[in-house]
Amino acid sequence: MAGVFITFEGGDGSGKTTQIRLLQKWLSDNGHTVVVTREPGGTDLGNELRDIILHSTGFIAPRAEALLYAADRSHHIHTLVRPALERGDVVVQDRYFDSSVAYQGAGRVLDATEVRELSLWATERLMPHLTILLDVPADVAKARQLGDERRFDRLEAEAQDFHERVRESYLALAEAEPDRFLVLDGTVSVESIHEAITTRVSDVVG
């Protein structure tokens, strides 16, 4: 495929939304056609699944939750991401399968390898060219969220130890695939993070 696939990962409150917006502008200003999307969501079906996954008030079994994410991911990649990459666009995506490994694998204490393989099967093993991990301690991320004055979704509302496991899982994933991951300290200035991102993305998009 002619395009470039860039994903952003990190715990809730890590600053992904801000950095994605800045990267989108930088890429557009440099002449690239950019598609910004997210998981769960990104399509009409995905938004319906997102509402179920994140805002359902009833219990969802951990394996069922993982399957719902995989269903969203499969449809999203097939209908939106692959076509954009085949056109030669740059796809910038908020969360991908690493989120499932961290949140459903480590957070829900499922088998991380099984969760990863489920997502790879669902997406026909589509891998990002670059994954940017914004690393923020769980207590700092929680403090940021409390300042947002909004209702937490099902995952954001989980206990501190859940989010600590998620963070540790992310760092382990990045350590295992250093060529794919760019790990950045999400507690430094927005400008410093953006500069580090654009420096690395320049090498990827050419």
From TrEMBL:
This protein's UniProt keywords: ATP-binding, Kinase, Nucleotide biosynthesis, Nucleotide-binding, Transferase
The reaction(s) this protein catalyses: dTMP + ATP = dTDP + ADP
An example Gene Ontology biological process: dTTP biosynthetic process
InterPro entries named in the record: P-loop_NTPase (IPR027417), Thymidylate_kin-like_dom (IPR039430), Thymidylate_kinase (IPR018094)
Stretches of the chain forming a coiled coil according to its record: none
Assigned GO CC terms: cytosol
Ranges for domain Thymidylate kinase-like: 8-197
GO molecular function: ATP binding; dTMP kinase activity
This enzyme's EC code(s): 2.7.4.9
Protein name, entry field: dTMP kinase
Taxonomic source organism: freshwater metagenome
